[in-house]
Amino acid sequence: MANQQTAGREALGDFAPQFAQLNDDVLFGKVWSRTNQLSLRDRSLVTVTALLAQGLTDSSFHYHLESAKKNGITQTEIAEILTHAAFYVGWPKAWAAFRMAKEVWKENDSKNSAKEAHEASMIFPIGQPNEAYSQYFIGQSYLAVLSTEQAGVYNVTFEPQCRNNWHIHHAKAGGGQVLICISGQGFYQEWGKKAQELSPGDVVHIPAGVKHWHGAAPSCWFSHLAIEIPGEETANEWLEAVDEAEYARAACSKQSHNKKDSDGLAAEKGIK
Length: 272
Prior knowledge:
Blueprint: H1 7-12, H2 17-31, H3 40-53, H4 59-70, H5 75-89, H6 91-104, H7 108-120, E1 128-129, E2 137-138, E3 141-147, E4 152-158, E5 163-164, E6 167-170, E7 173-174, E8 177-184, E9 186-190, E10 196-198, E11 203-206, E12 212-216, E13 222-228, E14 231-232, E15 235-238, H8 244-271
Antiparallel strand pairs: 1-3, 2-5, 3-4, 4-13, 6-15, 7-14, 8-11, 8-13, 9-10, 9-12
């Protein structure tokens, strides 16, 4: 399910509850969720262009530029989109839009450098932005299809803080998934259990019917191979997003574990 939008209710809930409900539940809850008709990336492109045509380079335009970036539109692409649109909507409007777009994409160079370094650390391709499943992820993920023969094998990459929603791999018989961590640092957590830190070389066996999530650590890119185990009547059920509190607990658990290791090493050196 798509993440619930609350901006309308937070800003206008008391003053204009009907408008807030239409904004949150219809526009963002239904229209933006129809990704089988039009991808989130394409919806962002249409929205940015429509707002630009009206000269609305305000906070809503900034929000939709950030969404466009999150939905996979690159710095090169937004520059070309605004340049092309300038001939139709007017040069002054494009200038205003460029000033705001430059702010939104200002961290693009450093992010691309981190992405390139991560990709160079592994032998498998990082793939393309994972648009087909973007509604089930917080943050940007990438997908490379490695094989679909005998069993599906995919390289899934998460940018820092990115994680997928809680989900379950269902199967009448067989099924499930195996994760093989190949680069970076991440987490895996089963419902009702503590999060497990993942490092290159770790292998996670996920039986069918187990509710779980996985994703990157707060400051690290993370990639794993996802191997789909063949089974009868297999299906994935996507559930609620991993909220910030749950994710923060996973990150705190990692920091606590690292501190214990550091304290233990210091004590050992003191003894010696």
